[in-house]
Design a protein that fits this description.
With 248 residues, the chain is an alpha/beta fold. It contains six helices and eleven strands. It has a single domain, classed as Class I glutamine amidotransferase (GATase) domain (Rossmann fold). A nine-stranded mixed beta sheet has the order 2-1-3-4-11-10-9-6-7. Strands 5-8 form a two-stranded antiparallel sheet.
């Protein structure tokens, strides 16, 4: 059976690359971690991969704003390669800071006429907790319509904001925060417009999401695993498996 080839991008300040690689490999993909400088030196690497993943962390210290420096570097040096991954049937995934990077690189927006940005949480501080997010449509290749995913989130600039008067296109809102088993705090913890937790593009092959699927791929990573009937596979693994299945 074919193993999709995945590149997990690394740069200064990114700190989730190893967990992300492990999640892809657990899902059945071949995965390697590559520094962005190596890809810029050899853009043909993107032509040889099926999935590009930008993992979480604080790329370049989130100087100026979250994800901006890495996003702009990618936009200026790798734009054709990034679009090429998508257009030949591959996938692009940005997680947390990686989501911020994809927005800054121009790969994700709230709609054809509705740009988006990721702003500071309305609470004014960093959030680290578990949330439930729901996929309400079948547009995104990596997600299952109607499924709820229980995942951890950890960010300070995760609030999706759009210009006044604009609307998020129905097929671009890949994930929304929803009530779930955590019963802690607000359903929409960072105050995102429309409780949106993730965006996809017009093709459904690019996904940016604030929660961390790579941090819940095994039963023992669930916060309640000792107290209840928790499946062996975490909700996050389902996202990676669905992507692998779509590429086989």
């Amino acid at each position: 059976m074919r193993q999709p080839r995945v590149i997990v991008l690394r740069a200064a300040g990114i700190n989730c690359e190893q967990e992300t690689q492990a999640a892809w490999e657990l899902a059945g993909a071949r995965c390697m971690i590559v520094h962005v400088n190596r890809v810029i030196e050899n853009p043909s690497m993107l032509a040889e991969c099926d999935v590009l993943t930008v993992p979480g962390g604080f790329s370049y210290g989130d100087d100026i704003s979250a994800g901006r420096i890495l996003g702009r570097r990618m936009m200026l040096a790798l734009a054709d390669g990034l679009i090429g991954v998508r257009d030949r049937g591959g996938l692009v995934l940005g997680i947390c800071n990686g989501f911020q990077v994809l927005v800054q690189a121009g790969l994700l927006a709230a709609g054809d006429t509705a740009p988006a940005t990721l702003a500071f949480n309305t609470c004014g501080h960093y959030l680290c907790r578990w949330v439930t997010v729901e996929c309400a449509n079948d547009h995104c290749v990596l997600l299952e319509r109607g499924r709820r995913y229980f995942l951890p989130m950890a960010h300070a600039e995760g609030r999706i904001a759009i210009p006044e008067g604009a609307e998020v296109a129905a097929d671009r809102a890949a994930l929304r925060y929803a009530a779930g088993v955590e019963r802690v705090g607000d359903v929409n913890p960072n105050g995102s417009w429309g409780a949106v937790a993730g965006l996809t593009d017009a093709t459904g092959r690019v996904l940016g999401m604030m929660p961390h699927p790579e941090r819940f791929v095994r039963r023992t990573q669930h916060p309640f695993w000792t107290a209840g009937d928790v499946p062996e596979e975490g909700d996050g693994l389902a996202i990676f498996k669905r992507a692998v299945d779509a590429l086989r």
